[in-house]
Structures are given as structure tokens and as C-alpha cells.
């Protein structure tokens, strides 16, 4: 399963060499939040539009624009090209007209489009991949006729902005980077042809690999192998916690991906640094593969991470790092960012040249991450870290699960907004008299199905603890009683509703598979009965 989009390379025929058009990308909807004024820099990329499914509607093949007589030809070319790719049932006309509106007024002449290539996005695990069918066209009128919000780039300027983004007022998206890279030597990702991934910006490869994590089922392995475009050769190597020729982050793969990891490690330079954002097994499971294929590899992590990993680091040279530590990778400086919240030893890594921030589990490609209270995770640290990451103002966020995010300020502000809204609802419930976990959850999550309430417990505890640390709880609120209420009393209160929910589902499927439904229904009933019996006995005792 995948979704599709159409994109266009508009080549300027008035200049020598390869110069193409990029358009200002639409920002995600506003995340206005009091006191937070973080805004992402403008992002420019190839003009593109989603290819929507027609689903039974018939396609109107009349010209897209009366001013542009070639538009019907374009529709025919695009339709036949994508049919050759085995793609059918898309509203091609709609996508073409949206792209033409981005490119220029209809009166500007373009030559008929020609198919360039299909770019298949890797499967990140949390979101459907978006595959892009890219066409090319020529533009042969004075470019001053193109209105604002459009820029012309060549391969060199694109690379300059990508590898020195801080010096520029705009950012460049992955499709434009791809268009430009066809005119420079093959990227790094070409080394791992059998493994689907993404190299963006240049020198930073992200490969989602099978892991034990849920629901993504994949952990992104990030490889920093800086291109020789902007070496920042350091004079004083002693400033660095570690130096190497290449760095990988979070080898957390299992199963078939272990063979892929072995292949990757073998193909990389021997002077390899392995950076761990934190100790969770879905970030460290591949370490034995790394050790086997490169015994000289050096492990870098926070002291708390090493402590929790125990013997799993055996055989590695380990270097303890923390926020502010600097690394030198092939003459290129990376900075370690302290990022507690998910766990207390959680770290991120920042490439200031490309503005790429690898955030570990602080962010996810989709949704928000769970904080691990058993490993020192807490809301106070999480929110402070989020603000610190906003202050960095990165170009791209690379989470360890899901697609990299091109709107970091938007995503991070959204996290703070989401958590603050939830916390204020919890405080209102507490001021309304709620004192136990069940009372708070049944008020705040009244609109959420009951079977999800146990999963919400961890978040509620984190928020109540955060309110406590900040002295926001009423005086008569007892943290001791609250913590006690999170254990068996909460389970007992939730159990009838959750088991009813579990019982109703098999019943609703009775027609589909009567035997298994009856068996699962009886099982649930027996389980509830057994737990109730055990509980009653304990109370009597
Ligand atoms: Zn984790």
C-alpha cells in the first residue's frame, strides 16, 4: 500500500546548464501557542500535487486551462506514462492543474511534459509511503514573468543550501535535492541498493530497519557520512569526545535486518563510531552484529544508558558523552544534545551544517512518544528538552521511528501544545474533586473508548507528577494516595468496562467466524470470573 503524487521539474532553457524551478511549500496548519514564537524557515521544493484516487468517478478529459492549449496533451502524456507504471484510477487532471497553478500563470508557455522517473519512498512503518511520479518540462519565456514564491536553482546552489543551510534564508526539500543530485555523483544510499532508505540532506542516510518496536515495527538506522562538500577540518582534535570516519545511530534491528546491518557495517570505513540515543532494546539489538563485523567500532552513549545496558556493551570500547560533547566525523563536526524526557539518559545528535537533528525517541514520525518512567523519563524534562530543541531551530528532525519531519518548529510546538492542553484538563478534573487515577481518567478521557484507558494511565501519572513538581496541585491532593490508586484499584475499576468491550467485539464478529468468537467470548468471561474470584478471596483474606 502506498499513496502517490505527481511532481514536475521545470527546466529553464534561457540559461546554460541545469537550472530548475522550486516553489514555496505550503506550511502545515498553525500551532499558535502563547509565549512560543518558533516558526520554520520557508521550504522550497519541486512543484507537486497528490494523485487522488478517482474511485468510480469518470475522468474529465477536457483541457485543464483554456489559456494553455497544451494542457490536454499533458493530461494524455501523464495518463499514458503512469499507466505504463501499472498505475490506474487517479485524478490526473486535478494534479496537473494544481501543479500548473504553482508553476506559473496559465499564459506562460511550457513544452509538453515528459516522464522522468518514479521515486518510491521507503516504508517508514508508521505512515504509508508516498511514491512520486516525476515529469520534466522546458520553460522558454523570460523568467521575470514567473510571480513570487518561486525560485530558480541549479545543482550547485541546491547543494550549497543543503550543506550550509544556516547561511541561507530558505530551506530546500528532498525532491529538489534529488533533482539536483542527478547532476552530481551518486549519493551514499546507492551503496545500500538492496536496502530501501533515504539520503537527505547529502551525507545523512536514514534506513528504516525491522525491529521489536510497536507500532512502527522499524527503527531508523541513521548513518552520518559527510560528503566532501564542506569539510570543516578541525585543527585541535582534543576538543572532541571522539573522532571517526563515519557514525551510525541506534542499530536496533532484529531478524532479517541483521544481515542487512552486517552488510552496511562491512561496507563502511573501519573507524566507525556507534552513537546510542538511549538504552531501549529496539535501539541496541543490532550491537552484536556491529561488534562481529567491526570489532574496532567505538560505542558512544550517556552514562545512564551504559549503566542500564550492563553486559550488552561488552567487547566494545565505550566513551561516555553528554550534552555539549562534540564529535568529529571525517572532518565534520557533530554536537551531542542533552535530551532527557523519554529516559533520563536520552541524547540527540545535531549536525549544525545541514541543520539535521536526530532526536531519538523524543519525537515520532507520527503521534507522540511514550515516556519511560521506569528509566527516569518524566514530563518536566520532556517539556524542557522540547523547548531546547526549538531553540536550536533545526532544518530537519529525524526520529528513530517513522518519516523524518521537515517542519520541526511546527512539530515540537505541537507536542508542547498537546501536552499542555492535556495537563490543564487533568488539573481541571483535580480541582473538580478527582483524586484517584480512575476518577481523573474517567473525566479527562470520557470521550475515549474504555479499552484505551489503561494505556492512558502512564501519561496521566506523568502529568500529575509534573503538576506536583511545579506546585500546582491543591493542598488536599495526596500524591501517596494517587500513586496507590494507580495500581490494583485502577485495574479493578477498569476491568468490567474493558472486559465488556472485549466481549462485545467477538459477539459482533459472530457471523464472520462463530466458532472462534464463541471461544474468545467464553475465554474473556472465564478470565474476568477468575480475576474477580481472586480479588474477592484476597479482600476476604
Ligand atoms: Zn525508546
How would you describe the overall organization of this protein?
The chain contains 15 helices and 21 strands. With 541 residues, it is α/β, with parallel strands linked by helices. The strands form four sheets. Strands 9-10-11-13-14-15-16 form a seven-stranded mixed beta sheet. Strands 12-17-18-19-20-21 form a six-stranded mixed beta sheet, with no helix packed on it. Helix 5 links the parallel strand 13 (246-249) and strand 14 (272-275). Helix 10 packs across helix 11. The longest helix is centred in the last third of the chain and has 27 residues, at 514-540. The radius of gyration is 27 Å and the shape is globular. The structure holds zinc ion. Zinc ion (ZN) binds at residues 278, 280, 342, 361. It holds the Pfam family WHD_BLACT.
Amino acid at each position: 500500500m502506498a499513496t502517490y503524487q505527481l511532481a514536475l521539474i521545470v527546466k529553464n532553457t534561457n540559461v546554460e546548464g541545469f537550472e530548475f524551478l522550486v516553489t514555496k511549500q505550503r506550511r502545515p496548519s498553525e500551532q499558535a501557542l502563547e509565549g512560543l514564537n518558533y516558526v520554520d524557515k520557508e521550504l522550497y521544493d519541486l512543484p507537486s500535487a497528490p494523485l487522488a484516487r478517482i474511485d468510480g468517478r469518470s475522468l474529465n478529459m477536457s483541457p485543464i486551462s483554456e489559456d494553455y492549449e497544451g494542457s490536454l496533451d499533458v493530461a494524455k502524456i501523464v495518463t499514458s506514462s503512469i499507466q505504463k507504471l501499472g498505475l490506474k484510477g487517479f485524478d490526473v487532471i486535478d494534479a496537473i492543474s494544481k501543479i500548473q497553478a504553482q508553476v506559473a500563470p496559465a499564459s506562460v508557455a511550457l513544452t509538453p511534459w515528459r516522464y522522468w522517473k518514479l521515486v518510491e519512498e521507503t516504508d517508514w512503518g508508521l505512515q504509508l509511503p508516498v511514491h512520486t511520479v516525476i515529469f520534466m518540462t522546458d520553460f522558454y519565456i523570460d523568467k521575470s514573468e514567473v510571480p513570487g514564491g518561486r525560485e530558480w536553482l541549479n545543482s550547485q546552489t541546491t547543494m550549497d543550501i543543503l550543506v550550509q543551510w544556516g547561511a541561507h534564508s530558505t530551506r530546500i526539500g528532498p525532491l529538489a535535492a534529488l533533482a539536483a543530485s542527478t547532476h552530481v555523483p551518486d549519493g551514499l544510499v546507492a551503496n545500500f541498493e538492496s536496502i530501501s532508505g533515504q539520503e537527505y540532506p547529502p551525507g545523512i542516510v536514514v534506513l528504516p530497519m525491522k525491529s521489536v518496536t510497536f507500532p512502527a515495527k522499524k527503527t531508523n538506522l541513521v548513518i552520518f557520512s559527510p560528503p566532501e562538500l564542506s569539510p570543516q577540518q578541525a585543527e585541535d582534535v582534543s576538543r572532541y569526545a571522539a573522532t571517526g570516519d563515519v557514525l551510525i545511530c541506534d542499530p536496533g534491528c532484529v531478524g532479517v535486518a541483521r544481515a542487512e546491518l552486517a552488510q552496511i557495517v562491512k561496507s563502511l570505513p573501519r573507524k566507525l563510531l556507534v552513537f546510542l540515543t538511549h538504552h531501549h532494546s529496539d535501539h541496541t539489538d543490532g550491537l552484536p552484529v556491529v561488534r562481529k563485523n567491526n570489532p574496532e567500532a567505538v560505542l558512544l552513549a550517556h552514562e545512564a544508558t551504559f549503566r542500564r545496558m550492563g553486559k550488552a556493551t561488552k567487547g566494545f570500547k565505550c566513551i561516555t558523552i553528554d550534552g555539549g560533547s562534540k564529535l568529529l566525523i571525517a572532518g565534520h563536526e557533530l554536537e551531542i544534545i542533552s535530551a532527557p524526557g523519554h529516559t533520563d539518559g536520552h541524547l540527540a545528535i545535531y549536525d549544525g551544517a545541514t541543520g539535521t537533528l536526530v532526536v531519538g525517541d523524543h519525537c515520532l514520525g507520527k503521534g507522540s512518544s511514550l515516556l519511560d518512567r521506569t528509566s527516569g523519563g518524566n514530563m518536566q524534562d520532556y517539556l524542557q528538552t522540547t523547548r531546547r530543541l526549538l531553540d536550536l531551530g533545526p532544518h530537519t528532525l529525524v526520529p528513530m521511528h517513522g518519516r523524518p519531519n521537515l517542519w520541526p518548529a511546527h512539530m515540537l510546538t505541537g507536542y508542547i501544545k498537546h501536552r499542555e492542553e492535556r495537563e490543564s484538563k487533568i488539573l481541571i478534573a483535580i480541582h473538580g474533586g478527582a483524586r484517584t487515577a480512575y476518577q481523573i481518567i474517567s473525566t479527562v478521557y470520557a470521550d475515549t473508548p474504555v479499552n484505551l484507558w489503561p494505556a492512558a494511565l502512564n501519561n496521566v501519572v506523568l502529568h500529575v507528577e509534573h503538576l506536583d513538581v511545579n506546585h500546582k496541585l491543591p493542598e488536599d491532593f495526596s500524591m501517596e494516595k494517587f500513586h496507590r490508586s494507580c495500581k490494583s484499584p485502577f485495574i479493578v475499576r477498569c476491568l468490567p468496562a474493558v472486559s465488556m468491550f472485549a466481549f462485545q467485539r467477538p459477539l459482533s464478529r459472530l457471523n464472520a467466524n462463530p466458532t472462534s468468537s464463541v471461544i474468545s467470548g467464553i475465554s474473556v468471561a472465564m478470565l474476568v470470573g477468575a480475576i474477580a474470584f481472586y480479588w474477592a478471596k484476597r479482600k476476604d483474606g
